[in-house]
Amino acid sequence: MCGRFALSVLPGEIPDLLGVATPEGYRPRWNIAPDSPILVLRAGSAGPRAAMLRWGFLPPWAVEARDPGRQINARIETAAAKPAFRAAFLKGRCLVPADGFFEWQKQPKGPARPFFVRPRDARILTFAGIWRRNRLADGSLLDTVAILTRDADPALAPIHPRMPVVVPAALRARWLAAEPVDAPLREALAQPVDLEAVEVSRAVNDPRNDGPELVRPLAGDRPAPSSRLEDLGPRLL
Predict the structure, then answer these.
(1) CATH classification at residue 172
(2) Could you read off the pLDDT of 162-173 as tens digits, one per residue?
(3) What is the number of domains present in the chain?
(4) Helices (H), the chain
(5) Distance from CA of residue 109 to its chain's centroid?
(6) Residues 92 and 84 sit within 8 Å (Cβ to Cβ)
(7) Does pTM surpass 0.70?
């Protein structure tokens, strides 16, 4: 799943990195939590456009912003068939830029260990997302978004069994296109992603904490975490 992520690029970097104008309200963040406004790329008549949408997808029947049925994630394997996500998966696909995402590795005893998962060879990731616009009971309109997830790559599975669907730069236009998602695109999005995981401070557990120190590898008395995901498996024992 994806329940917390970071996007720390400066506002002035957005046009060069993503080819869109920086939306009003954007600011760098290192601990983005559900129900926050997040940067989203949506299809426009002249190419992708950026906007700030609330992370917490409302189903079509929701008329309250805090509807208990809102979802931060949707499974790519089933989203096209589920009534809550079906229309958005067909006509409301979007991209969610990120530096990386956090996952927590459960332990036999004691608290879970947080890891920051980031790309080895890219400045920024884009997650597959879906969005929709709801008219609320008070007459206002609210745009919300969910991040799609898939089975984790084998190297990441020792930390968590699910991961966000990462859309490579070469596939971003296809993901945003109005055409249905076909088998070749699904297969391409299921390919392993070149990621590394670093163990980070448990300060990230509190969404009120926000700063670059949250994505820095642990240091001090504890052994430095491996930069190779496949080396994390024995720590589950």
Answers:
(1) 3.90.1680.10
(2) 999 999 999 999
(3) 1
(4) 14-18, 86-91, 172-176, 183-189
(5) 28
(6) no
(7) yes
